[in-house]
Amino acid sequence: MSSHEIKSVLLIGGAGFLGLHLIEQFYKNDSSTKISVFDVRPLPEKLSKQFTFNPKNIKFFKGDLTSADDVSKAIKESGAEVLVHSASPMHGGKTEIYQKVNVEGTDNVLKVAKKSGIKAFVYTSSAGVIFNGQDIHNADETWPIPEVPMDAYNETKAIAEDMVLKANDPSDNFYTIALRPAGIFGPGDRQLVPGLRSVAKLGQSKFQLGDNNNLFDWTYAGNVADAHVLAAEKLLNHSTAGKASGETYFITNDTPTYFWALARTVWKADGHIDKKVIVLNRPLAIFAGYLSEFFSKILNKEPGLTPFRVKIVCAYRYHNISKAKEILGYKPQVGIEEGIQKTLEWMDEGL
After folding, report:
1. Structural domain contains residue 271
2. Strand order across the beta sheet in which 136-139 lies
3. How confident is the model at residue 45 (pLDDT cuts 50, 70, 90)?
4. Does the chain have fewer CB atoms within 10 Å around its N or its C terminus?
5. How far apart are CA 189 and CA 221, in angstroms?
6. How far, in Å, CA of 152 to CA of 275, rounded?
C-alpha cells in the first residue's frame, strides 16, 4: 500500500449536511477505507438513494468536540490517520456558539489530534473569511482577511483557519490544510435550495434584490467533499505533503454565475417562471432591510430581510481555484445544473 492511500479517517461533524457527502466521497474513493464519524447527533437512519454507503458500516462516536477526552477516545478507537474537521454551526446563529465550536472546538481537536498521532488534518473553513461586504473579483488565496469581519461566523472561521495553518508541523509528521468552499448546496441541504422553494411558494420569487450583474460562486457539496479526499491524499503522500500543507485553498464549481441564476434554475425546474420581475436596487433594498429589522425588533420576531443579506445578495463574490487545481488536483465533477437536479430529487424523496 502506497503512503497516500487512506486506511482510516475520522470525520468530525460527519453526521451533518457536508458530513454525509464526505462519507460518500471517502467511500467512493476507496471502499476499504475505514470511516468513522464523531458528532453530537447520530447519523440519519434513512439516507437519500443518492448516497451509496450503508450507515451501519460507519463507526459512530457521540461526543463534544471541546472535550479532549471525547476526541481522544474517538481517535484512539477509530485508529484514524486522517482527521477531517467539518463541524460548524449553521449561519445565522449566536456568537457564543460560533466561539465554542469554531474556535474552542478547533483548538481542542488540533491539540488532541497532534498528540494522538494523526498525520493529516483537513479543516473545512469558508470562502466567507475574506468577505466583509466588499466586492470580490476572482480572489485567490493571497487576498487578505479583512480587519473588520462581516459577521461572527466568518470571524471565528478565520481564527480557526489561522490556528490550523499554524499547527502544521512537518518535523513532527503532522500536516494540515484549510479548504475554503463557497456557496455549498446539494442533497441534505436544509438552507439554500429548500429556502428558494419556500420563496416561490410564498409568491416572493418575483422580487429581485440588486440588478443581477454580480457574479457569484456556488459549489456542489459532493465536489467540496471530493476536495477533502484529495487534500487528505496529498498530506499522506510524503512527496506532496510539504508543498500542499500549511495552506488554504478556495473550492468552487469554477463556474461563477449571476447571483439569481441558481434561484431561477431551481424555480424553473419546479415549473415556476415569473412573467414579471420587480427589481429593488441595492440602496433601496438595504433601506428595506433596515426597516425590516426595525419592525421585527418591535414585533419580537426574526426579520425576513436584513442589510447583511442584501449586501451578500448584491456583491460580486467569485474566486480563483487555480491553486486547488494545481496542487490538490481538484476538478469539479458535478456541474451546477446537475447538482440542482440531484438536490431537487433528494427533496422530492421527502427526507
Report:
1. no
2. 136-139, 317-319, 215-216, 257-258
3. confident
4. N
5. 9
6. 39
Amino acid at the residue 140: D
Q: For the full predicted model, state whether its pTM sits above 0.85.
A: yes
| Average of per-residue pLDDT across 62-74 | 97
Strands (E), 241-348: 247-251, 257-258, 278-280, 317-319
- Those residues with Cβ within 8 angstroms of residue 314's Cβ, 6 or more apart along the chain or in another chain: 209, 210, 214, 259, 282, 285
Instruction: Determine the structural domain holding residue 136 and report its residue range.
Output: 8-187+217-255+318-332
The number of distinct structural domains making up the chain is 1
Assess whether 46 carries a catalytic annotation: no
Cell output for 74: 474517538
Residue 210 φ/ψ region, left for φ over 0, alpha for ψ in the -120 to 50 degree band, beta for the rest: left
Q: Catalytic residue, from 28, 34, 115, 157: name it.
A: 157
The answer to whether position 195 is within a domain reads no
How many of the other CB atoms lie within 10 Å of CB of 145?
A: 17
Residue 138 lies in a domain: yes
Distance CA 92, CA 98 (A): 10
